[in-house]
Amino acid sequence: MSELNLILLGPPGSGKGTQGERLQADFRLPYYATGDILRAAVREGTELGKQAKEYMDRGDLVPDDVIIGMISERVESAEAADGFILDGFPRTTAQAQALDGAMERLGRRLTAALVIEVSDEEVVRRLSGRRTCVKEGHVFHVEFDPPRKGGVCDVCGSRLVIRDDDKPEVVRHRLEEYQQKTEPLISYYEGKGILRRVDGEMAPDEVGDRIRALLATLQMEEQL
Ligand code: AP5
User: Which site in 4, 37, 143, 205 is 20 to 30 Å from 69, CA atoms measured?
Assistant: First the structure.
């Protein structure tokens, strides 16, 4: 594929981060995960982190003006000139329109918006068992993807913790935010002809294989 400009959509816990990490390794493209960027800012106590923390703790979306500037500057940067993978952005129609504007300025187009589909019950099961490493944000699950050594990240050896927003009441609110503000983007991208759906309820390797197959099909279609 000449250029891959990919969006990962899907409810909380659908596996965007899990698959994003694999795609990043496959394609060696810059990977911008808004949740990871915001959590790093909170840890470092930056102005962005201070602005975002209260929204994230409640499970609310962070206001568009904060998020749009943060991602636009990355998408328009030199390191993303050959493509990018976006995880967790856009999440509102205003964010999607801002991304369209950035792509237009760059004279480029989005390759696909990939939605990873899972049920609400599966979201709850996954987020209640998720463990995240404190240093680099690598993700595990106590049952479905356990670390080799309990409580320690396989990749960087740092401590594994439960995310503050994985408490059941916050998860419920994150799901509502997704349904109200982000789900409309599915028809938005369907209308543009770039939506691709993936069944996210299979094992992580199988989901990864489906995504690879889907991207290979897109590549073939581009060459026709
Ligand atoms: P963010 O961090 O982006 O949270 P999210 O979208 O809710 O997604 P998650 O990170 O919870 O889940 P995921 O889909 O990446 O799943 P994962 O791979 O970890 O955002 C956090 C907050 O930041 C938001 O609430 C908001 O406040 C703010 N924010 C971020 N972006 C924003 C934006 N654009 N605008 C405004 N505010 C924004 O997998 C979950 C678990 O399941 C793991 O344990 C994993 O091991 C396991 N798992 C994964 N795949 C499978 C599988 N196939 N089978 C079994 N288990 C699996």
Answer: 4
Strand order in the sheet with 195-199: 31-33, 83-87, 4-9, 112-117, 195-199
For this structure, is 91 an active site residue? yes
From 48, 54, 60, select the one nearest 12 (Cα to Cα): 60
Under 8 Å between Cβ of 82 and 3: yes
Band (223; pLDDT cuts 50, 70, 90): confident
Residue type, 162: I
Plot region of 28 (φ>0 → left; ψ -120 to 50 → alpha; else → beta): left
Give the separation between CA 175 and CA 123, rounded to whole angstroms: 9
Q: Is 151 exposed, middle or buried (0-12, 13-18, 19+ CB in 10 A)?
A: exposed
pLDDT at 34: 97
Specify whether 163 is catalytic.
Answer: yes
Are the CB atoms for 53 and 42 separated by under 8 Å? yes
Catalytic: which of 174, 181, 196, 210?
A: 174
Q: How many CB atoms lie within 10 A of CB 60?
A: 16
Beta strands in the chain, from DSSP E residues, in sequence order = 4-9, 31-33, 83-87, 112-117, 130-133, 139-141, 160-161, 195-199
Kindly state the average pLDDT of the residues 181-187.
Answer: 98
**pTM for this entry:** 0.94
**Cα separation of 81 and 155, whole Å?**
28
Whether 138 lines ligand 1, by a CB cut-off of 6 Å, is no
